[in-house]
Structures
1.
Amino acid sequence: MEFYDELMKQISMIDNEKVEDEEECLISGLPLKESYVTLECNHKFNRKNIFKEIYHQKKHVNTYNSYKLEFCQLQCPYCRNIQNKLLPYDISKKKIEGVNAPLRLTMGVSKCQYIFKKGKNFGNACNKECIKIYCVKHDKPIVIQTCIAKLKTGKNKGSTCRNKPFKNSYCKRHLPKKDMNKNTN
C-alpha cells in the first residue's frame, strides 16, 4: 500500500509542475504546434505525428485490432473513436489516398468565411469546412469586372464606367458600333 501512495504523490507532483495553459500532443507529449489537428472526439495532435499514425493505421495490418477501417475512416489513436473523415490536406505533405486524400473526404481546418452577397443566404457566411480561408467553391479570385470605357459627360466625367461588361470589356451602352453590328447579324 505504501508503494502506491508514494507513486500517487509522485504523479500528482508531476501534474502540478506542468503548465496548465499549454496543451500537448497526445502522441508525442510535446506542446502543440501552430498547425495542429483536432479530431471529432476533440483530441488534439501535432500534424506530423497524427499523419504518421494514420498512415500506419491505413498501410499496415494490425492483427490486434478487430475492426477494419473503411477507406474514408480514421481512428483516434487516443480513444479509438472512429470518424468518417480523413486528415486535412497539408501542402507540405504528399497526398496519400485514404490518409489525406481525396480532398472531398478530408476534414476542414477552418470554416469558409465567404459572405453571400445575394440570394436566400444574403449576408450569411458560407461556413463549409475548408483548408484555407475559403472553401473550394469560393477560393477563386474575387474580381469584379467593369466596362473599360471612360465617361465623357455627367458628374462622373473622366472616370471609368462601372457597368458589367457585355462584350470585349465594354458594356452594351459603350460597345463600339462595329462590334454592335456583328452582334445583331
2.
Amino acid sequence: MIAGVKKPQLLSSLDLTRWAEGLYQLSVSEPPLRGAIFTIEQLEVHARALAGSHQIGHRQGGDQLIKRLNNSERVIARCHEVMSRAHAMGRRLTPAAEWLLDNHYLVEEQIYLARKHLPRGYGRQLPPVANGEATGLPRVHDLIVELVVHVDGRVDEEALARYVAAYQSVTQLTLGELWSVPIMLRLALIENLRRVAMSITWQRAHRDRAWVWAQRIDAPSEGHEAALLVLADMVRANPPLSTAFVAQFTQTLQGRGSTTNLALPWLEQRLAEQGQTIEEAVRADGQAQAADQASMANSIASLRLVNTTEWHAFVELNSATEKILKTEPAGVYDQMDFATRDDYRHAVESVARRGHFAEESVARMAVALTTEHYLADSTGVAAHVGYVLVDDGKRDLW
C-alpha cells in the first residue's frame, strides 16, 4: 500500500470505462520545466545572457504568482486523487506517480509555506520583465525558472550561488529580489511538480483507455466473434496511439493467444502509418516514465533544500549593497550583528525605492558621505554609515 493512500470503493467495469474516459479529457497544456541540462559553467553563461536580454518594465503586473500557485494546488490535488484511485483499483503506477503519492504531504506543506511567504501584492514590489514569455512576471521569477529548467529541478547551493552571481555580473538584483529567491524557487518547483503531475495523469488516462479496450477485446466469455466486434468498435473510436496507450495495450494483451493475433497486427499497421513500431513506442514510453520520475524526484529533493538553506547568508553573499556598506572607513558596519546590518540594507532599499534610484548608487552615496565625516572627525557619530542611513544624516541622502 502506498503511504498515505486510502483505498476507495472499487469501480465496476462500466464505471471504470467512464472513469478512463473522464481522465482522457485531461491534457498536458504545459510540458515539465525540462530543457538541456547545463553544467555550472554553462549555467553561468546562460545567466549572463539572460541578464543581457531582460528588459525591465515600469508597470507591475497583478497577482499572477498567487494565481499560478492556486492553480498548481488544484491540479496537483486532482492528480493525486487520480493516482490514489488508480492504485486502489490495482493499476500499476509509474515511478513518478509513486513519488507523488509518497510525498504528497511534503508538497502540501510547501504550497502552504509558499502562500504564507507570498502575500497579496508581493509580486508588484519586484521589477517585472517587459519582454518575452515572462512579460509581466517578476524578473527574479524568470531567473529562477530558467535555472530549474536547465538542471531538471535538481538545484544545489553551489549552482544557485554561482548562477545568481553570474547574473549580477551583468545586472544587479535588488535586495527585495535576493530575499525573494527562496520564494521563487518554491514557486518554480511547485509549478514543475504540477506540470509533471499533469503529464503522468495524462499518461494514466491513456493507459486506462488502453486497459479497458484490451479487457473488452479479451473477454473470455464473449468469444472470438465478439472480440472482432469490439476491435471494430475500437477502430471506429480511433483512440490516439500515444506511447502510453501502446505500451499498456500490448502489455495487457501479451500472451493472450488468439486475441493478440487479432489486435496487435492492426496496431502494428496503424503505427507503421505513423512511421513507428510497437517496440519503438514501448521504448519511448519507458524513457518518458524515467524522465518524469527524475523531474519529480529532483523537484521534491530541491524543495527540501529550500527548507534547510541558510538564506540570510545567501542574501549577504550576493548583495551589492552589503559589499558597498562594508567599505565604510570606520569598519563598524562589518562588526554589527545581522539584524542591524539588515536594517541598514533596508534603509538603502527604502531610499532607492522612494527616489527611483539604484540601490548600489544609494549605498555608494552613503559611504561617500560617511567618508567625508570620517575624514573630518574619525571619532564622531557621523563617522559611521549608520548616521546617514538611520540617524540625523538621512536628509543628506536626498
3.
Amino acid sequence: MKKLLIESDNFSLIVPEIDRKGPGRPPFWEIVFWWGREPLFSARAFIAAALLPEDFNISEYERIIRLNKDLPHKFNPETDERFKNFTFLDPFAGFGSFALEAKRLGLGKVIA
C-alpha cells in the first residue's frame, strides 16, 4: 500500500507551520471558544494530508489548504477533483469541524 502524505517526512516539516498559523478562526470567536474544538485550518490540513500520496507536491498541497495565506480562516480551501471519490466518516462528530472541512475540500460523501 502506498504511503500517504501525512506519513511522509515532508509532512513533519509542515506541521509546525500549521501550528504557527494559529487557531484558524477570527479573533472575536475567542469569546465563545470551546477548548476541546479543533481549529478548522488544522482539520483541513490533516484531512488533505491523509488522502494525498506521499510524493504529492508540497507547494500544491499548501495551495489547496491555503497554508500560504496570513489568515487561513478568511479563505475557503481549494476544491480539488481528486477528493471527490473519497468518503469521510466521523461517527462522533463533536463540533463538526472535521466534517465541515472535509466537505469544503470537496470530498464526495461526508457522514457525521
